[in-house]
Design a protein that fits this description.
- The complex is a heterodimer of chains A (84) and B (183).
- In chain A, 63% of the residues lie in helices and 0% in strands.
- Chain A has helices at 3-26, 31-55, 67-70.
- Chain B starts with 18 loop residues before the first helix and ends with a helix.
- The chains are: A mainly alpha (84), B mainly alpha (183).
């Protein structure tokens, strides 16, 4: 998977997780939504791990070299010399 | 506190400069019904909410609106990057914007700086939640307006995504208002 494809997938699963999060904020004990949320957030974490393995950390606290600073920032896509 | 994730909630990949569109999009950044207003309104309303569900919802939507501010700033950046002062002036950008050399300021399309007078932070939870419903609808209408003017498929994709999010937020705030009314 290219970096762009991974970011698209992260975006898709991230939005799914966010929608479930907002639903659970209003209905915190909904068991079906909780089960879906656990599944989606597990998928999300796996995808984050895969992304970070290939393209560097998504959060600064996870950085072990200089990729957090030096890798392209999200608004710098391929055509602009980045690859977000 | 907040933790930053180094990606956009929805990727923005615009390759064609469009200064006129960029100018219009400033309304969603520093305009009265823009994403900064939404984010600040929801986050500041949290403290006086009577139930944890309302606090959770305002935290998560307020945080998402900040991510939308970043998406729109990225969009304006990609639509304007590399434009000369002359081009910016010709596209009708305000003199102050041209002076700042294309910085993505929190102003509306006329260059008026964002103001906290745009937002409603009242202690009464029903009044606050009702204001939020209206805010989401105003934002949705703003995106509808921009979508009638946008032509670049990449720009349309991003604006459509943001419009859809306002609809989701409206639904959740509506459920929360019912919950607060039933107390």
């Amino acid at each position: 998977m290219t970096k762009s494809e991974l970011l698209d997938q992260l975006s898709g699963i991230g939005i799914l997780a966010q929608d479930l999060r907002l639903f659970l904020d209003v209905n915190p004990t909904d068991q079906a939504a909780l089960a879906d949320f656990r599944q989606v957030t597990a998928e999300y974490r796996n995808l984050i791990a895969l992304y970070e393995q290939q393209h560097g950390p998504l959060t600064g606290g996870q950085d072990v070299n200089s990729t957090w600073t030096n890798h392209p920032w999200p608004w710098q896509h391929e055509m602009m010399g980045g690859n977000a | 506190m907040w933790v930053y994730e180094k990606r956009l909630q929805f990727p923005v990949r615009v390759t064609k400069r469009d200064l006129k569109m960029a100018k219009l999009i400033f309304d969603t950044l520093g305009g009265a019904s823009g994403e900064l207003s939404a984010s600040m309104e929801y986050l500041q309303q949290r403290y006086t909410m009577p139930i944890p569900e309302a606090i959770a919802l305002l935290t998560d939507i307020g945080t998402e609106e900040l991510a939308h501010l970043e998406i729109l700033s990225s969009l304006v950046y990609q639509l304007t990057v590399g434009a000369s002062s002359e081009e910016l002036k010709k596209a009708g950008f305000d003199a102050k914007y041209v002076e700042t050399g294309g910085g993505i300021a929190l102003v509306n399309p006329d260059g008026v700086p964002w103001s906290s007078s745009y937002i409603s932070v009242v202690g009464d939870p029903i009044a606050a939640m009702t204001s939020n419903l209206a805010a989401e609808e105003r934002a949705r209408a703003g995106y509808d307006q921009l979508l009638t003017l946008a032509t670049d498929p990449e720009v349309i994709k991003v604006l459509s995504f943001l419009r859809e999010r306002e609809v989701v937020h409206f639904q959740r705030f509506g459920e929360m208002l019912n919950k607060l009314n039933d107390m």
